[in-house]
Amino acid sequence: MKVRAVAILGSTGSIGVNTLDVVRLHPDRFSVFALTANLNVDALFAQCLEFSPDIAAMADEASAASLKTRLYQAGSRTEVLQGEAANTKLAGHAQVDVVVAGIVGAIGLLPTLAAARAGKTILVANKEPLVMLGSQIMHEALDHGATIVPVDSEHNAIFQCMPGGGADGMLISGIEKILLTGSGGPFREMAMSEFAGITPEQACAHPNWAMGRKISVDSATMMNKGLELIEACALFDVPPGFVQIVVHPQSIIHSMVQYVDGSILAQMGAPDMRTPIAHALGWPDRIESGTKRLDLIELAHFDFQAPDEIKFPALRLARAAAQEGGTLPAILNAANEVAVEAFLNNGIGFDRIPVLIESAMDTIENQQERSLESVLEADQRSRHYVEGLL
Ligand SMILES: NC(=O)c1ccc[n+]([C@@H]2O[C@H](COP(=O)([O-])OP(=O)(O)OC[C@H]3O[C@@H](n4cnc5c(N)ncnc54)[C@H](OP(=O)(O)O)[C@@H]3O)[C@@H](O)[C@H]2O)c1
Fold first, then answer.
1. What is the domain count for the chain?
2. pTM value?
3. Of all atoms in ligand 1, which is nearest to the CA of residue 107?
4. Which of 48, 170, 192, 220 has the greatest count of CB atoms below 10 A from its CB?
């Protein structure tokens, strides 16, 4: 078996740490070629000592300098790169077989594109680039012989419920509908009138999943489900009307695919990202993930509900962006990133997040022609617009 060289972009985050947990179990299958982060020197330093990557990179220059000094003093041979562009360089590096896209936000767009253009196997957790550039990332991957395996638990579940991961096309597979499940977040049962008083700590305390702060807030506003709807359209080449969002508070079924004969295939597992990560790392083989196994008798029952789009307007906004296409998903995504950051810094109330996003979507012109340039421009315009409102 060939040992595959892995580059983990965002190795100190939730996805990165879970990926390294799985990689640690399989030294016969994977070697760590590169690890990247932004600011967290302590965590990257410890990862470098354990996994001895050839290269480590930090976007923040002062952090990179500090890491370099500490690794040198520790006798490590890991080379340290600095600056954001290092992610793009490493994603396309000739010695890398597998790129784990685990950076959070639009910042991951250029590295994901570089990995696609370099024909890598890309494990996509970082959903924002797919939201922004849509199916063009898939086309770039196809054109350059790259393989995209979704890591987001819902999309990984859908991938598992489609023969060949959907690669053989919707009509041939007889697929009728994608059922995208979501827990409904921590405020599913809270009255809307209380939303203004929600604190960042409350929003980041997801009932089922331990995740980074930005995606935790996205889950609380249900924008995460909206972004996932757009992500599903890009990954599986389906229109938004093909995707139904189903609230499933237990987070055990991670999504489903309905077929024309009435069958529904579901993928289940404990809410632990190491399962989809192990699936994506091992694919098409199955490998150990180190997760706790489900006890169905103990679980006893599953619940399903329709999502509440009045209470969670982010769902309506994301569906509108998916339907209108062009640069609108990038406008929505950038506005969301700025609004979430402001909320996390106690700059705005939780209830203001969708208001700011809707304002950006109403104000900034949607360019129907979607290209890397138009998407990056829309991203910048949306950021500046929302920053101006804060
Ligand atoms: N967490 C989950 O369970 C989960 C599930 C599905 C999908 N996702 C998606 O996966 C992505 C990552 O989420 P997360 O929860 O893992 O986020 P997170 O815990 O906040 O981690 C983000 C990672 O990105 C790094 N980073 C930020 N800016 C960077 C830059 N310019 N260059 C290099 N690294 C940079 C951070 O480094 P520092 O630590 O140094 O800041 C950190 O390693 C998001 O797009 C999210 O939507 C996450």
1. 2
2. 0.97
3. 31
4. 220
